[in-house]
């Protein structure tokens, strides 16, 4: 596609359930990033993929959070045993080669997660 | 470590008036600087970016930003605001190393009054 796509656009779940969020990056982009946007907190980095490997997982807030990427394309962010503090907008971004300097990151529309 | 500060959480500007959104960064070397805009329910759209060279950068939708190394600032400006500019604006800093993520400020919400 022309841009980064994410699904679902909205997800409401009950506390304790697992959720999966999906990201389709721009075709040909080798680098993929997940960010979390909480109310009043700006955007926090979660995890970075280069190809299918994740050299930087430093932003994942707990071991309930995990992510994978297959075929150097689609990525899935999984949150297990969701908590109310997980409620946020989860944004995915991609760029061609992975440097966050000259290589512009393009963002998807996000998935709004609400944990009841 | 890099950091970004946007001192203004919320700004209201009259339609047709000029706008300046402030951004200060902390980084030891020359950073790569970005401004993104997020309209309600939308993802982030890149307005402009500074890598090197001319310190006055032109972007989309009539926005510009000026990099001032001495002040560690990268303020966003627009000479005449339109109602459609109401949105949240994020300043971000990046470094040109593989695998590094952008560091974002907490954003400034712009309201436009008629």
Question: SSE layout and pairings?
Answer:
The complex is a heterodimer of chains A (116) and B (114).
Chain A: E1 5-7, E2 10-13, E3 19-24, E4 31-38, E5 42-50, E6 53-56, E7 65-69, E8 75-79, E9 88-95, E10 106-107, E11 111-115
Parallel strand pairs in A: 2-11
Antiparallel strand pairs in A: 1-3, 3-8, 4-5, 4-9, 5-6, 7-8, 9-10, 9-11
Chain B: E1 3-5, E2 10-14, E3 19-21, E4 24-26, E5 32-38, E6 44-50, E7 56-58, E8 64-68, E9 73-78, E10 87-94, E11 103-104, E12 108-113
Parallel strand pairs in B: 2-12
Antiparallel strand pairs in B: 1-4, 3-9, 5-6, 5-10, 7-8, 8-9, 10-11, 10-12
Write a concise synopsis of the structure shown.
With 116 residues, chain A is an all-beta fold. Chain A is 0% helix and 51% strand. By secondary structure, chain B is mostly beta strands.
What this model shows, in words?
The complex is a heterodimer of chains A (116) and B (114). Chain A contains no helices and 11 strands. With 116 residues, chain A is mainly beta. In chain A, strands 2, 4, 5, 6, 9, 10 and 11 form a 7-stranded mixed beta sheet that branches. Chain B is mostly beta strands. Chain B is built from no helices and 12 strands. Chain B has strands at residues 3-5, 10-14, 19-21, 24-26, 32-38, 44-50, 56-58, 64-68, 73-78, 87-94, 103-104, 108-113. In chain B, the strands form 3 sheets. In chain B, strands 2, 5, 6, 10, 11 and 12 form a 6-stranded mixed beta sheet that branches. A 4-stranded antiparallel beta sheet of chain B has the order 3-9-8-7, with no helix packed on it. In chain B, a hairpin with an 8-residue loop joins strand 10 and strand 11 (103-104). Chain B is globular.
């Amino acid at each position: 596609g022309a841009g980064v796509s994410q699904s679902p656009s909205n997800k409401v779940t009950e506390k304790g359930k697992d959720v999966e969020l999906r990201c389709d990056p721009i075709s040909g982009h080798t680098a993929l990033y997940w960010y979390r946007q909480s109310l009043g907190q700006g955007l926090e980095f979660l995890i970075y993929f280069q190809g299918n490997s994740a050299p930087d997982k430093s932003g994942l807030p707990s071991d309930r959070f995990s992510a994978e990427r297959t075929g150097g394309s689609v990525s899935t962010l999984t949150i297990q045993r969701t908590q109310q503090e997980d409620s946020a907008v989860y944004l995915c971004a991609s760029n061609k080669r992975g440097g966050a300097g000259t290589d512009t990151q393009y963002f998807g529309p996000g998935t709004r997660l609400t944990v009841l | 470590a890099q950091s970004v500060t946007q001192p203004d959480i919320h700004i209201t500007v009259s339609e047709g008036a000029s706008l300046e959104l402030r951004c200060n960064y902390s980084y030891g070397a020359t950073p790569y600087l970005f401004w993104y805009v997020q309209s309600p329910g939308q993802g982030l759209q890149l307005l402009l970016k500074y890598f090197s060279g001319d310190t006055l950068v032109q972007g989309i939708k009539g926005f510009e930003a000026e990099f001032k190394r001495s002040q560690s600032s990268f303020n966003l400006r627009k000479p005449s605001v339109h109602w459609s500019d109401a949105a949240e604006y994020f300043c971000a800093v990046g470094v040109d190393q593989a695998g590094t993520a952008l560091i974002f400020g907490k954003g400034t919400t712009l309201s436009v009054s008629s």
